[in-house]
Design brief:
By secondary structure, this protein is of the alpha/beta class. The protein has helices at 15-27, 52-63, 84-94, 106-110, 118-124, 140-143, 160-168, 179-188, and strands at residues 2-8, 32-37, 69-72, 99-105, 126-130, 148-150. The chain has one domain (2-156): Rossmann fold, CATH 3.40.50.620. The chain contains eight helices and six strands; from the N terminus they run βαβαβαβααβαβαα. The protein starts with a strand and ends with a helix.
């Protein structure tokens, strides 16, 4: 089975995440997309994160009506901060029958040369890149790399940060979240 790994803190997961994940599984050479909930990214601060199990619950709620999208807590048992290269090694060990690829926005590709052991990742895994509006340019080595495929996905300019700020400001953000995710956030008084 060909599995695309969509990593994120999903703090919270929103309709942009779902639109991209669904577009990638339907339009790239993938059988499933696993939404990998990251406990701590090397590039983010932990203070603004909800507990891992709450963010995983939101991903479960958001993906339960999508057969090809699956939540994953694979990084919960790994050392923090979470480095993709270690997660991939762990997945290969647990699921040797699967062929894994990475999904990432073009903004992440611009900083990919800063990732731990990025060369090893590119030697062994395909990257499916979706467009994002962001500053900077993609390094020349990634512009034409045979393992990097650009997928013409919709550009989603929704961010979890904007959603959290809107909740604090008491704005109606319901259209940006799966209804069950919105209800969970509201019931738990998250981000207020």
């Amino acid at each position: 089975m060909k599995v695309g790994l969509y990593f994120g803190t999903f703090n919270p997961i929103h309709v942009g995440h779902l639109a991209i994940a669904n577009h990638m599984v339907e339009n790239a050479d993938l059988d499933q997309v696993w939404m990998v909930v990251t406990p701590l990214s090397p590039f983010k601060k932990k203070s603004s994160l909800l507990a891992n199990h709450h963010r995983l619950e939101m991903v479960y709620l958001a993906t339960e009506n999508y057969d090809k999208l699956q939540p994953s807590d694979i990084e919960f048992g790994l050392p923090e901060p979470n480095y993709t290269v270690y997660t991939l090694a762990n997945l290969e060990e647990k699921y040797p029958q699967h062929e894994f690829s990475l999904l990432m926005g073009e903004d992440n590709l611009k900083g990919f040369h800063k990732w731990k052991n990025y060369e090893a990742i590119l030697d062994n895994y395909n990257l499916y890149v979706y467009p994002r509006i962001s500053e900077g340019t993609v390094e020349h080595q990634f512009a034409t790399h045979p393992r990097i495929t650009r997928v013409a996905a919709p550009i989603m300019e929704i961010s979890s940060t904007m959603i959290r700020k809107s909740i604090v400001a008491q704005k109606n953000i319901r259209p940006l979240l799966d209804i069950k995710v919105w209800q969970f956030i509201d019931e738990m008084n998250f981000y207020k």
